[in-house]
Structure prediction request, 198 residues.
Amino acid sequence: MRNQSDLLHFEYAERFGSHVGPAENSRCGLRRHRSAQALDARRIERAMNWTGVAREVNRAGQRYNVHPISPGTISGLKNKRWGVEGDGVLQMLLWLDRTPESFVPGHPGATHPDARLPQVSTDKILRFDVSAIYDKLDGQRAARGLTWAQTAAEIGGLYNAETLKNMSKSRRTGFPHVMRLARWLRCPAATLTRVARW
Prediction:
């Protein structure tokens, strides 16, 4: 009989993916046009312009001395072919009150409680914890006896051995590419974030 830890691991593996090859993993990327449609639908529902959306996404008036996300960046999300800066997308997802997985077609973990992004206070921002992501990748890679090249091949997409290794020195990651990492790690994208001061 499985103990509670085993059951949790089994549930995560089932909902958030297992170690899969690049062909299957190619289907797990976040659809940018769907997130852009969701932003536009909420904007229209609330009779807002994109400047108003940007003010709320940036929590303008609550935070100062920050680099805000521009209205053009938000409205132009659908036109970004190779992805966008991950931390900015997290702020948009918080505004939508949506999980990252909810934009991956057919993702079984989209409504899982652990997939919900943590709420942050006005003096904080939610960011992807790239250092922790690297440590998780390296730990699982080593446990399975994989090279970085083999790991990148399983993750797929734009990742190669060098881009994965360079994460040890990076502070940023992009959407939707980070969703491939969450899938390979078999965890919700929310668990790969950290709450930081602006």
Q: What stands out?
A: Confidence is low (pLDDT under 50) at residues 1-13, 18-30. The two ends are 46 Å apart (CA to CA). Residues 74 and 185 are 29 Å apart (CA to CA).
